[in-house]
Amino acid sequence: MANIFGIRRSDPSEELVSISDRGADALLDILVLAASALAETDSQRRLAVWLAEHDRNYGVGTVGFYLSDMPWDSDSFEEDRQFMVRVTDAASQKTGWEVLDYRPNADHLMPMLGWFRKGFVRLKTADINHGILSDWLSDMDDDDPVFHGFPRCKKHGVYLAWHGCRICNTK
Ligand SMILES: [Zn+2]
Q1: Distance 137 CA to ligand 1 centre (A)
Q2: What's the gap in Å between 132 CA and the centre of ligand 1?
Q3: Which of 34, 52, 88, 94 lies in the 20 to 30 Å Cα band around 70?
């Protein structure tokens, strides 16, 4: 199954991109590694956790999404959007890749990271759904890591999601 990504739901289908299942697993791993390394605020940590939740082993089996559907905080959207641009740059520089027990296919992933970078550059505050953060938080159980100081995996350094560490889980 393909994992399809877009910037906004209103975008024409030719602007969507897709990646294989294995490619999507690696793409999300490296984005989560970079986001976990760079996050400085809770809104940025939430974006890292949200990405970590996109795990093919849990849920519907595919992990595509629209950048506009990330749990953006309206109060810090601009800083957080720039944070995500830096995250794609850090992922392109292979930030954290040394903790993985496989070697991500850089040739396959770099064009996707380039697409994400452009997407985050283009995303505007008018594109985001302003209720999306509170909807995401209200769906969570009380024991979700997001409400408990954003613990990280001791082995991989990434923020934990409700299902634990996405990198440990794929062993
Ligand atoms: Zn781990």
Answers
A1: 23
A2: 27
A3: 94
Model pLDDT for residues 32-57, shown as the tens digit of each residue: 999 999 999 999 999 999 999 999 88
- Residue 70 C-alpha to ligand 1 middle, in angstroms? 23
Is the distance from CB of 27 to CB of 34 less than 8 angstroms? no
The structure's pTM equals 0.95
What is the distance between the terminal CA atoms of the chain, rounded to a whole angstrom?
21
Distance 49 CA to ligand 1 centre (A): 13
DSSP string, 68-127: GGS---GGGHHHHHHHHHHHHHHHHTTTTGGGSSS---HHHHHHHHHHHHHHHHH--GGG
